[in-house]
Amino acid sequence: MAVVMEPPKEAQEAWEPRIVAFFCNWCTYAASDLAGISRVKYAPNMRIVRVMCSGRIDPSFVLEAFRDGADGVLIGGCNPGDCHYKEGNYKTMRRAMLLSQMLQDLGIEKERFRLDWICASCARELQTTVNHMTADLKRLGPLNWKGV
Amino acid sequence: MNPPAEAPRIGVFVCDCGFNILGVVDVPAVVKFAAALPGVVHAEEYKYMCSDPGQDLIKKAVQEHGLNRVVVASCSPTLHERTFRRVVSEAGINPFLFNMVNIREGVSWVTEDKVQATEKAESLIDAGVRRVTLQEPLEARSEPVNPNVLVIGGGIAGMHASLSLANANRGAKVHLVERQPSIGGNMARFDKTFPTLDCASCILTPKMTEVKIHPNIRLHSYSEVVSVDGYVGNFDVTIEHKPRYINEDLCIGCLKCIEACVFKDARFPNEFDLGLAKRKPIYIPFPQAVPTKVLIDPHDCLYLRLGTCKKTCIDACEKDAIDLEQKPDRVSLKVGTIVVATGFKPFDARRKPQYGYGVLPNVYTALEMERFLSPTGPTEGVPLLQDGRKPETVGIIHCVGSRDKNTNEYCSKVCCMYSLKLAHLIKERTGAEVYNFYIDMRTPGKGYEEFYERLLSEGLKVIRGRVAEVTKAALTRAEKDHLIIRAEDTLAGFVRRIPVDMVVLAVGLEPQSDTQELRRMLNLSCGHEGFLQELHPKLAPVSTATDGIFIAGACQGPKDIPETVAQAGAAASEALSLIHRGVVEIQPYTAVVNEELCSGCKVCIGMCPYDAIGYDEEKRVVHVTEVKCKGCGVCAAACPTGAMDQQHFRKELVMAEIAGVI
Amino acid sequence: MAEKPKVALYWCASCGGCEEAVVDLAEAILDVVAAVDIVFWPVALDFKVSDVEALPDKAIAVSFINGAVRLSEQKEMVELLRRKSQLVVAFGSCSHLGGIPGLANLWDKASIFDWSYSKAPSMEPGATTRPMTKIQVPEGELELPEFWDTVKSLNQVIDVDYYLPGCPPTPKLIANAVQAILTGKLPPKGAVLAGTKALCSECDLNETKPDKLLIQDIKRVTEVQLDLKKCYLAQGVLCMGPVTRSGCEALCINGGMPCTGCFGPVQESPDYGGKALSFVASIVDLEDPARAQEVLAKVADPTGIFYRYSLPTSKLGRKKMPRRK
Questions:
Q1: B449: closest CA of chain A, how far (Å)
Q2: Chain B within 8 Å of C247 (Cβ-Cβ)?
């Protein structure tokens, strides 16, 4: 049944969104390490899948994550010009542009898919990104693709 | 990809890391959870997995339970992946049948809620187990390390690193690149160093000479690194030598050409003296410059600027060393390791206009004061006011551009100590009364606090409080014709106005202005303040995220000379350790093509920034040149069919991980 | 002489093109008819459902079913044919992948009915007629098939043995498939009876690609004078050849139109649309975000282009409809 009902209030409160995060090894994964070393706390909803370069991220991975039950997908890579592999992140940028459009066509709200450039020393930015995204997802409610 | 050859027998080892993980994650519950996962035949907990007993425990479990795949859930793979791969390998398992799950930096250190932390750790381990189940045995590749080293920056850090390397590295060359016409860096500008007050030149000049004459060091002064390619052990470097308009090989440093210049007076600001002294278009930066070779500033030289001059310099040169047609010249080098020692930039005091720098007379930066105090400086060691008098009172303002939300929030670390040094030297040379305005007096270091005590006993006046402004607006007769320093004395609890003749601004240390370009060229990271980022503050303080590139000195953060030299030694030793090992391991995360599936569409070829993919006209499929592939996986993501994949990051592995974390 | 193998042909949600493709076998169809005994073919022959129901289970050697499944009646029919057949072949893109009707998964029943029966410009404004599954008429209660929210491929409803891809499958592939079935020389169950690599492998224009296939702009086929002797992608025109299974021998491309992907993904592909999107975004060689966005915006309707034939069988399958109050 494609008509989605509002989940009951109490269920919504207990529910915690799940974010699948694809981070590049050199910048955003390093930022997550730095967040750890600096004890920068953030929402516990994110699960990191490490790849060497954000350019490795096949849009199919993002689709797979949503299908499997992710409420949000976050891609983290090096800032433009800073890619450890010269230009992988530009490919990520362009794929994300088209993918974001396609996901919205498929009824997945814009806030559920993010690409953020988070540098190796950007532990605070990582914290802000994860916290904001978690808050956005709590507002949107579960995606629950299996029930679509 | 092919399914695993034998049924997985996975061991999961969960680390308490003392209380680092155990304090937040319910480790026994996690172990129980892991033991029930498909393929897991053994799961256990230990205090410190990375310790010797922890490593032995893994090896023992491999034997006892016939494990063929291993997951360790502990800290970040950046820290200990290598350690555990070695352990697993010693236990007889291919090191790529190991997976590390980060439950410290990724979980316990960043999560407050214990229940959620435990749940997060469990889902990450679930993903790790699913991933390891599908991982394939791989072989790391070995590449020889070129013994030559590139050192960028010829200050005290770069010189010390170069000498350490050159002394140990017989037969191999150290290429020291300095963009200024002379090596020596900022230290060459100092008169004395704290806290021992030994003469900077006496320490530095012999070192500079040693660099020059060392058979294993090739000095590229007045040169810049323009490109760096390749990877650890095998970097390709291009250096550009800027034209000095002097043939360096012929110039003997007699300086007769300078005398002969058509400009009879020195009228152009001398960069080394920060513009406080003048030079001619043809000059040497300072008397002890190394190399002791003259150079011509093309912006000042009549011939180079306008094309007409009597060229008296050429007539004066007995060696025919002057070459006014000289062009920039590029050299290509191969090196195996790189030491970055590019130093700092002093804070621009104009950014604190309330202190009047550049507007009010007799307001100087600390570095300018260093030149005034130097016997070879503009006033030959005695600081003088602009009217030629000796100052009777001098105010030194600490923390200019440091510990300041409007400029730099960090402490520049060296300013308190150098301000005390300057106070001592100014008193010594001029007899002036010196006031130091500080926020906190920070003197940790061997002999530093004692130096502060000594200064206090010498009658130094210290006022605790950030200075609000320096002004000429006198309110009283005593203030007339003086600079008035207005500051709240936070110990006395009222606002003071101290009239002085001269103000010295203890400017902080900032990253060099082209750090970003350097960082991009070398693939390094910068911290928030813009200084180069070390790999780990404690465990790898001179290493960087790019293997084979090390950092030393103030390019990594503000530090004093002893620390800089210690870091330079450490960076040299890290480089040497690589050189002496002789080979580097290259991770086998390379791209692989399934020829059965490849349609030869060529999409991947244009993706590769390293030209590692070619087209086989005969088979009509693409092929990967493994040694050129750096393992980013961009081609695998772009491949329209899935024929291209990345070893150790195959789509099945990523998909398994995704399934696990949800 | 042994009994001729029984064959059934059926259509679900389809345009009829696949039926045409069978007729397009031309003279060869006579050989087929001679070799087999057609027991059910609603488009061409007058058999009733009761005729099929009367057959013993597995009596039909092979059923060729085209069209996607989107009505309860279609489900009943394909389940019946499955029961009566030894082999079921999903015939054509709709049956194989969901096809063009599968794009209806960007809506649901309510929104489609809203549009078709109320909002679409009409000669009868304000009409409120809606299809119903049951209706009372003087003669009694009539039952009509139920319209589903989600369009499905054949294998999402019944077990499928083989797939004949294409919109429609080419005569050559149909003839090959029939031949293979008649001679029993069949590949492993689940195989797609076409090429295994992507279309570039059999496209003549592949040789004309530059060493690095990178483009600065995207153009619609109507905006350029296509050089028919040069790879269309290299000319900035989107061609789904690199991501689409081969077997059609580049029919469209040889006819002057780029590939739109009716043969669907190759075996190893994780997701047709994901891969199509990825390769297109990757080869647009622009680093400036504004310029890249501008050029990528020329992929009008990325979902429609990249999932033209395969939305129901894609990872996400359909659109998640907005919540209704």
A1: 29
A2: no
